[in-house]
Amino acid sequence: MATMTGAAMAGRYSRPSAKSRSKLQGRKEVGSAHGATVLVLDDDTSVCRSLKRLISASGFQVQTFGKPSELLASEIPQSNACMVVDINLPEMNGIQMCEVLKNSGRALPTILITGRTDPSVRSLTAKSDAIAVLFKPFDEDALLDAIGRALALST
Predict the structure, then answer these.
(1) Which domain holds residue 94?
(2) For residues 49 and 122, which has the higher predicted lDDT (pLDDT)?
(3) In a domain, 15, yes or no
(4) Number of helical (H) and strand (E) elements in the chain, helices listed first
(5) pTM of the entire structure?
(6) What is the domain-level CATH number for residue 51?
């Protein structure tokens, strides 16, 4: 698991930079991102909207969810997909939700996001199977790089 912090974007994501688009185009050429789906789970609708805009502008299909129960009730792709999951959610935390998916045989490579950096959150993330943990606000390049790495692991 990689831990990354990023430059301040204050939770707002706009059009990906030329550098980000270039990175993703390179990934598409090797086939890992072509037609890929990214599931985004965050109870903050503005974060979901911003992440959907950023990720879809980078060439991915995006599905957003506001609660774990919504994601768990959905059709989860079996391959060429990953998840971006907030840790602090209603119903259960993001790590618990990932465990439910894993126990039901529907796990996907996951990037955890959080606005909290206290020791209890760091302890939780250290025990997770996450590809990356991004602390809000994070840099769009860090997120897009983590998505690329997660998709490379999605079979």
Answers:
(1) 2-7+35-153
(2) 49
(3) no
(4) 6, 6
(5) 0.80
(6) 3.40.50.2300
